[in-house]
């Protein structure tokens, strides 16, 4: 248990955070297609190498979440990505859910797959060098959703996963993502996020998950992408904090937000606002798109642009790391 606590705490140590580079093959194929790159084992490896091989990533990264394919790959320097990360003091992590499928009885909602055979996969990943894991549950808003059934089924599965991780010495990142898809208001997002987190922590307690040895990866409290009324950054920050204070025990060492479709600048700004005052938990990031999108566009598959894209990535990393201490300056976006 003391190892789990130490790993969880080091993942949220001041000044650094987590890169989610664990897109499934289907998701990374979409991201690559958006910049005109065909997805193959090689292009996926080259792209991940661009990120993980950027010199100095350890200045803003405490951990990287990998995908099953990536954890078995080597970078351009012929070292396994896991080895490279460990050699620079960055914890390797692994996505262990197998994606979502329609929820029986409520097919417009989803349940996350992957509990079958989970323990043996966790042991394999641990033996390959992973120190932590991630499981994403998805909560949909709209038209009677989320149902009680969807909240409870996803919370139950998250808790089973978290317990299984701790049993083999991996820190679970528990990710219940309330989606930004839709035109719902920030008030609705607050209400749904509050219900989601209450349900999740009830299930974690029932499954005897050690809160001190896990991290929570939630959405921020924010209006749907299609909502005409978008709250300013200080309101997103204060509503998110108000919701988390009502639901997340102080025993949890850290909260690492997902970016969920916010722009890089928005995600950075919101995190910085929340870090203006000390909170019961460390408030950090576990961003995918918000850390990667600019670098992906700068690269767009062109070998000659790897260095430029890495600079773009390092700059975004530095801005996001500044948000950990509330010292991000939005005017730097223009620079
Ligand atoms: P985004 O930051 O792009 O939402 O990705 C984070 C993540 O890991 C989703 O599971």
Concise structural overview:
The chain has twelve helices and ten strands. The protein is α/β, with parallel strands linked by helices and 335 residues long.
CATH topology annotation: TIM Barrel
Strand percentage? 15-25%
Reading side by side through the largest sheet, how are the strands ordered?
A: 1-2-3-6-7-8-9-10
What are the secondary-structure elements, in order, as H or E?
A: HEHHEHHEEEHEHEHEHEHEHH
Overall average pLDDT: 97
Q: Kindly, what is the distance between the CA atoms of the first and last residues, rounded to a whole number of angstroms?
A: 45 Å
> How would you sum up the global shape?
globular
Q: Approximately how much helix is present in the residues?
A: 40-55%
Instruction: List the ligand species.
Output: 1,3-dihydroxyacetonephosphate
CATH superfamily: Aldolase class I
**Number of H/I helices:** 12
Number of beta strands: 10
Domain count: 1
Explain the overall architecture.
The protein is α/β, with parallel strands linked by helices and 335 residues long. It has a single domain, classed as Alpha-Beta Barrel (TIM Barrel). The chain is 45% helix and 16% strand. The protein has twelve helices and ten strands. The chain has helices at residues 2-11, 25-34, 41-52, 68-71, 81-87, 118-128, 148-167, 186-206, 233-247, 264-274, 289-299, 306-323, and strands at residues 17-20, 61-66, 91-95, 100-103, 106-112, 132-139, 171-178, 215-216, 254-257, 282-287. It has an eight-stranded parallel beta barrel with strand order 1-2-3-6-7-8-9-10, surrounded by seven helices. A two-stranded antiparallel sheet has the order 4-5. Helix 7 links the parallel strand 6 and strand 7 (171-178). Helix 11 runs antiparallel to helix 12. The relative contact order is 0.14. The model has no long low-confidence stretch (mean pLDDT 97). The site of 1,3-dihydroxyacetonephosphate has 11 residues, from strand 10 and helix 11.
């Amino acid at each position: 248990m003391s190892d789990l606590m130490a790993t969880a705490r080091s993942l949220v140590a001041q000044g650094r955070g987590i890169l989610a580079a664990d897109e499934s093959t289907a998701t990374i194929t979409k991201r690559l297609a958006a910049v005109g790159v065909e997805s193959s084992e090689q292009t996926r490896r080259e792209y991940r190498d661009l990120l993980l091989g950027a010199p100095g990533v350890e200045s803003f990264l405490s951990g990287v979440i990998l995908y099953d394919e990536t954890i078995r790959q080597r970078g351009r320097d012929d070292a396994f990505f896991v080895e490279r990360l460990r050699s620079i003091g960055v914890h390797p992590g692994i996505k262990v859910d197998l994606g979502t499928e329609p929820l029986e009885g409520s097919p417009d909602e989803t349940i996350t797959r992957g509990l079958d055979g989970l323990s043996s996969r966790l042991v394999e990943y641990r033996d390959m060098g992973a120190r932590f894991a991630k499981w994403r549950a998805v909560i949909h808003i709209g038209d009677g959703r989320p149902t009680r059934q969807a909240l409870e089924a996803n919370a139950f599965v998250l808790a089973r996963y978290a317990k299984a991780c701790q049993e083999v010495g991996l820190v679970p990142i528990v990710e219940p993502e309330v989606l930004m898809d839709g035109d719902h208001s920030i008030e609705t997002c607050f209400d749904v996020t509050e219900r989601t987190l209450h349900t999740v922590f009830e299930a974690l307690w029932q499954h005897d998950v050690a809160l001190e040895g896990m991290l929570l990866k939630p959405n921020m409290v924010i209006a749907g992408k299609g909502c005409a009324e978008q709250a300013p950054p200080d309101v997103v920050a204060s509503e998110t904090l108000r919701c988390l204070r009502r639901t997340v025990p102080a025993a949890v060492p850290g909260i690492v937000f997902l970016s969920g479709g916010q722009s890089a600048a928005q995600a950075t700004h919101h995190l910085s606002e929340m870090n203006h005052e000390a909170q019961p938990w460390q408030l950090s990031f576990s961003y995918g798109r918000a850390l990667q999108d600019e670098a992906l566009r700068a690269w767009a598959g062109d070998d000659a642009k790897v260095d430029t894209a890495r600079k773009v990535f390092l700059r975004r990393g530095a801005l996001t790391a500044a948000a950990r201490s509330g010292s991000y300056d939005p005017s730097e976006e223009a620079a």
